[in-house]
Specification:
Blueprint: E1 29-33, H1 37-48, E2 52-56, E3 72-74, H2 85-106, E4 111-112, E5 116-119, H3 123-133, E6 143-145, H4 147-154, E7 162-165, E8 169-171, H5 173-190, H6 199-214
Parallel strand pairs: 1-2
Antiparallel strand pairs: 3-8, 4-8, 5-7, 6-7
Helix pairs in contact: 1-5, 2-6
The structure holds flavin-adenine dinucleotide (FAD).
Flavin-adenine dinucleotide binds near residues 33, 57, 59 and 69.
GO biological process, one term: methylation
Keywords: Cytoplasm, FAD, Flavoprotein, Methyltransferase, Multifunctional enzyme, Oxidoreductase, S-adenosyl-L-methionine, Transferase, tRNA processing
InterPro entries: FAD-dep_OxRdtase, FAD/NAD-bd_sf, tRNA_S-uridine_synth_MnmC_C
Length: about 220
């Protein structure tokens, strides 16, 4: 055990802020404000832990805000130094993809893990994307493609090289938002949720966990 004392306290730094509240360690019912994908995924996560939620939203329907997009790209925001957002987004992307895959076992929503490709279409984007590649990430997360490989990957003639996120893809956030609320409806009605998974899910989770260890 290490014991010590603070010789010089910085004024006010050791006190809780006025708005600080201890988190409830055993919540039974949680109020959530908003009807977009952020609150809907929180609703689903809480439902899986057996916690009821009440959603407050100023709109009549879910996904009327930014999450109303019909198509959203899913890929990690990385940088060559692997600092800041990159350190959050690399594992968060893997988590989000797994979350969406588990959702897809239960409900239909439009999505495709077709990979995401960003073209080095001018000098500025080339510099930015090459810098990103200097982070030496696992190639399952991000890889460089020359023009011919890019053409083969996207199925459209490309004179440009690119970076490609092989595990990336797209999904319909509006549909996923509605699915997650349905999950909570099921929980509220029946008080239990059956987890379903398949062998390929387990394999996929192992693959994600291996990549996550590297980032
Ligand atoms: C054009 C566009 C393209 C995008 N493309 C992508 C993409 O390709 N990939 C990607 O990952 N992200 C993309 N994004 C970002 C992504 O859509 C948002 O980050 C995400 O939808 C935010 O979700 P949210 O649940 O936080 O907010 P929202 O979906 O905006 O939901 C907020 C909800 O809260 C409600 N609300 C707000 N204030 C109150 C209040 N006081 N009381 C009650 N209700 C309230 C609103 O009415 C709304 O329903 C894009 C965004 C836009 C606009």
């Amino acid at each position: 055990m290490i014991v010590g004392h603070i010789a010089n306290k910085t004024p006010f730094s050791n006190y809780d802020a006025l708005y600080y509240r201890e988190a409830n360690s055993n919540p039974k019912h949680v109020a959530i404000v908003g009807g977009g994908i952020a609150s809907a995924t929180l609703v689903a996560s809480l439902a899986q832990r057996g916690i009821k939620t009440t959603l407050y939203c100023k709109d009549n329907e879910p996904a009327q805000g930014a999450s109303g997009n019909r198509q959203g790209a899913v890929y990690p925001l990385l940088n060559g130094e692997h600092q800041g957002v990159s350190r959050v987004f690399a594992p968060a992307f893997l988590y989000a993809r797994q979350f969406a895959e588990q959702a897809a076992i239960r409900f239909d929503f439009d999505h495709d893990w077709c990979g995401v490709t960003q073209l080095m279409w001018d000098e500025k984007s080339e510099k930015k994307l090459e810098r990103m590649l200097s982070g030496k990430f696992p190639t399952e997360l991000i890889q460089r493609l020359d023009a011919a490989q890019t053409t083969a990957a996207i199925g459209v003639e490309s004179p440009h090289a690119s970076v490609n996120y092989p595990l990336g893809g797209w999904l319909c956030p509006a549909e996923l938002t509605k699915f997650n609320r349905t999950l909570q409806d099921l929980w509220n009605a029946h008080g239990s949720l059956q987890q379903r998974s398949s062998i390929s899910d387990a394999d996929r989770r192992r693959q994600m966990a291996n990549i996550a260890k590297q980032v």
